[in-house]
Fold this protein.
Amino acid sequence: MSWLKQTFTSSIGRKYAMALSALFLVVFLLQHFIINFTSVLSEETFNEISHFMGTNVLVQFGLQPVLIFGVIYHFVMGFVLEIQNRNARAIKYAMNKGSENSTWFSRNMIFSGLVILGFIGLHFYDFWIPEISHKYIEVLPEDSTRYFGEMVEKFHEPWRVGVYALCFVFLSLHLMHGFQSAFQSVGARHSKYTPTIKKLGTLYAIIIPAGFIFIALYHHLTAL
Amino acid sequence: MSTANGLNLTLKVWRQKNDKAKGQMETYQVSDISPDSSFLEMMDILNEKLINDGGDPVAFDHDCREGICGSCSMFINGEAHGPGREITTCQLHMREFKNGETIYIEPWRAKAFPVIKDLVVDRGAFDRIMAAGGFVSVNTSGNTQDANAIPIPKADADKAFDAATCIGCGACVASCKNSSAMLFVSAKVSQFALLPQGKVEAKERVLNMVQQMDDEGFGNCSNTGACEVECPKGISLENIARMNREYMSASFTADKQ
């Protein structure tokens, strides 16, 4: 299998793997948003879906490990590639007008990525760690009605809503480039559909993060 | 004799004695430069002045001075080949600059393109990538077939020709924030992959050329598109997507281990 190792350690192979993990995360983010949005529409529905996602064996022990691997791979490889790329130019230009030929967000994926990494840390601290503790460490009795209340409680604090909103702005910037870039990396580019992918990417990069900000603000304001 | 619209300019030029020396930016003044002169002619004037003053002229690559050889390779005011689109440095005219302006002139910056002297870099990495697979093996025993005998769809011929217009100047590497050579390599892979004559060795070619590209120490492509914008021949990112497809397909299907 040395050919397979060689393929996925080559510059193109790594880009493929980065793109595939990115597309997986794009799909994950969409389903996460849809589930979260149900909390605006119905407390009961949100609790039901959250309970299902938190207790279903396939989700917990099939999809969750894949998600964790995807997230870790995307971040670790992002850093590896960034270090390689920085090393590929030992001396920087005295003057470099990057804005003349590329967008800010395409040149600064590592910075928007770092903000997202910080956000995931906060998100894990807020929701994932207490959830794992509830289920597997303290082994508390199952309560399918607790999810909505736990979420609203978190969004009670204005600083947290502010931090979430700021992080989602960086997520938007990351997606502005990342969405269409993932398709380019896997070679999916054609004059027939690439313009649509780019428009779809821009829409996704605006609607999904804005939607998450709306949900956080909605629960903050309605709980006042 | 000075002219009414002659330009007086401050030049900040990278000077480096040889590949081992530590270089630095040096400041020079040039005056009464005609707006109609090319950037290289302005550099010639600077060098004449330096020689007359007993100094060392600035070394820079140049050959055809009509935008087809790919020799000239200056990073001018933060852009490969300077301001302007789809031009080489020799096609850049001084009318693009304002009187009194300070112009930064630097060599291509990439670990894979080491500086030999001043603004001259060693682009041998591109030659080694070409030697790894950038060719079509043909029978040279005297019975070579006429290439025109093979029907080629017009769209494919056009795309192959567009890819083949790459002059290998290295502006893509110089412009890319990662010093990636993907646009160059993909153009060379595409120009053959699109034609029946090149398809025979397509799998080996893409695997070998990408391997050589990685060995040379170029960075990774992150699809910023800077290379396409700064390319003097307008080589499209479509070629990179094609190479990505070719590479992955060849990895799984080629006989090469």
